[in-house]
Design a protein that fits this description.
Helix content: 55-70%
Oligomer: single chain
Shape: globular
Radius of gyration: 14 Å
Strand content: under 5%
Largest sheet: none
Number of helices: 7
Number of strands: 0
């Protein structure tokens, strides 16, 4: 993959790598729909590469956001899913070794955040 710019974008988040990718590096609904199986379909096939939608979820999480509203808007517009579904997919991806191989920096950061939240409960 090619190097991008910005914090943690070394993992190929460039806007021109995937057809249908927006200027923010997140694939649009058409690209996400092409991979409708996502995490659920890949649960039994851990050796298959991540779907386009799974990569898009990680791409959204890789970015920093000025506000929660901006992030939710991109989730709805680019991924075509609700924020609730997005966080369900993201949580499943954190336990997927393919996601770790695809974007170790983002996955490890999110695992640390998740573990810290669980420890506070």
């Amino acid at each position: 993959m090619t190097s991008g710019t910005g914090g943690g974008a070394e993992h190929g988040a460039g806007g021109d790598e995937t057809a249908g990718t927006g200027p923010d590096g997140v694939p649009g609904p058409a690209a996400a729909d092409a991979a409708a199986g996502g995490v659920a379909a890949a649960a039994g096939a851990r050796t298959a590469p991540l779907s386009t939608r799974d990569e898009a979820v990680l791409a959204v999480e890789r970015r920093s956001w000025p506000s929660p509203g901006a992030k939710e808007r991109v989730i709805r517009e680019r991924l075509g899913i609700s924020p609730t579904r997005y966080y369900q997919l993201l949580n499943a991806l954190l336990d997927d070794p393919r996601a770790l191989a695809h974007d170790a920096v983002t996955v490890n950061r999110l695992r640390r955040v998740r573990d810290a939240r669980r420890a506070r409960r």
